[in-house]
Structure formats: structure tokens, C-alpha cells
Amino acid sequence: MDTIVQILKQNNLSVTEGRRKILSLFLNSNGALAHADIEKNTDKHFDRVTVYRTLQSFVDKGIIHTIPTSDNSIKYALCKDDCSEGHHHDEHIHLLCTHCGNTFCLDDVVTPAIRLPKGYTINQVEVVVKGVCKTCNLQ
């Protein structure tokens, strides 16, 4: 069984052509993908709503996570193995390259511990750093 089918079945998702194609894009990507990137790289018969619903189901199942951007849009990246349905553990830094525009998960850099005042609860921590990626730095 290939990796894509295995991931979908482990997460109790039916194996459809749309899910296979979109998950394949994530598995073959070096960075995060925007909704527009996914629409551009899938067959024309996947409409905007189908792409959105697929992305949302992947987020809900812990397959991908969201990354905020400076223009208030969202990018998506693959989760690591410890994420599951309703429980994302992607507490790492994201780098937005100001040269190429790509967003990268920096898995080796964890977010600092945040202590909130009594009575407050953290649901999710998102840290986006702007800078230049290693590929652009070599140019």
C-alpha cells in the first residue's frame, strides 16, 4: 500500500482522487502551500470548495497544520507523526523567506515556553519569523 493511501486510511478518510492528489502535493513539497498553490497544481476539475474541504479535513485529522502569514492568509504544511485528530503538536518556528516567498517549518527550533497569567489558557502557539531561507542565502 502506498504512503498516501496508508495516511488516508489511518485517519479514517476515504481514498478519493482529490485527497490523493492534494496529499501528494504536500508530500512532495519542501515548504508550506497556500490554497492557491494547491488549486494551481491540481487538475481543473477540483473546484475551490473541494480543495478547501479537503484541506480542512486534513487539518481536523492532524495530517496538516496551518501557518499564519503576514497578509492574514493561511498556508498549510504537513504535520509530524505526533499530531492526531484534534491535537496538533506542531510547536515550532515557521520561517517566511522575504526573498523567495516560501514558508518553511523549522522543526529543530521549538517555540519558547509561554507563561500566561492565572485564568488564561493557551490553545495554540504560532510563531512566524521573517528572514532569508538557506537556499536564497546561497545565491
UniProtKB/TrEMBL annotation:
Molecular function (Gene Ontology), one example: transcription cis-regulatory region binding
> GO biological process: any one?
negative regulation of DNA-templated transcription
The alphabetical list of record keywords is: Iron, Metal-binding, Zinc
Cofactor: how bound: Binds 1 Mn(2+) or Fe(2+) ion per subunit. Binds 1 zinc ion per subunit.
Residue sites binding Zn(2+) per the record: 97, 100, 133, 136
InterPro entries reported for this sequence: FUR (IPR002481), WH-like_DNA-bd_sf (IPR036388), WH_DNA-bd_sf (IPR036390)
Report the cofactors: Mn(2+); Fe(2+); Zn(2+)
Task: Provide the residue positions that the database annotates as binding Fe cation.
Answer: 88, 90
PANTHER family, sorted: HYDROGEN PEROXIDE SENSITIVE REPRESSOR, ZINC UPTAKE REGULATION PROTEIN
- Please identify the protein, giving its name as recorded: Fur family transcriptional regulator
